[in-house]
Write a structure and sequence with these properties.
6-stranded mixed beta barrel, cell membrane, 19% helix
C-alpha cells in the first residue's frame, strides 16, 4: 500500500510541477511558416523596427532571445533576436526582418517553411 501511495504522490508532484513551466519552454523549437516585414513602426518590445538588422517576431518567446532559423527549402540559416510579437496568421511561427529573410533566401517568395531553435 505504501509503495502505491508514494508512486501516486510522486506522479502528482511531477504533473503539478510540469504544469508550472513557462510557456516559452514549449515554444523553444519548432517548424512552420515564416514571412518577412520591413515596417519602420515600433515593435512590441518598444524599439523601432529596423528592416536592416537580424530580428524577428514570435508569439511567446522572451524579447532578446536568440533563435537560429533554417529555411527548409534550401538549408540556409540565420540567427535572429526576438524583438516583436507575431505572426498572427495561422500556420506561421515567425515574422522575420527583411535582412533576416534575405540571408535565408526568402525575400522574393515572401514566405518559407522554416524550423527554428532557441540558442540563448
Amino acid at each position: 500500500m505504501k509503495k502505491i501511495s508514494r508512486s501516486i504522490i510522486a506522479a502528482a508532484t511531477i504533473a503539478a510541477c510540469s504544469s508550472m513551466l513557462p510557456a516559452e519552454g514549449f515554444a523553444a523549437n519548432g517548424c512552420g511558416g515564416a514571412s518577412w516585414y520591413a515596417l519602420r513602426s515600433k515593435t512590441a518590445s518598444g524599439e523601432r523596427m529596423n528592416p536592416a538588422i537580424l530580428t524577428a517576431a514570435h508569439r511567446s518567446l522572451a524579447f532578446g532571445t536568440k533563435v537560429k532559423v533554417t529555411n527548409r527549402n534550401n538549408g540556409r540559416t540565420v540567427v535572429v533576436r526576438i524583438n516583436d510579437r507575431g505572426p498572427f496568421i495561422r500556420g506561421r511561427v515567425l515574422d522575420l526582418s527583411r535582412a533576416a529573410a534575405q540571408n535565408i533566401g526568402m525575400v522574393s517568395s515572401g514566405t518559407a517553411k522554416v524550423c527554428y531553435q532557441v540558442i540563448s
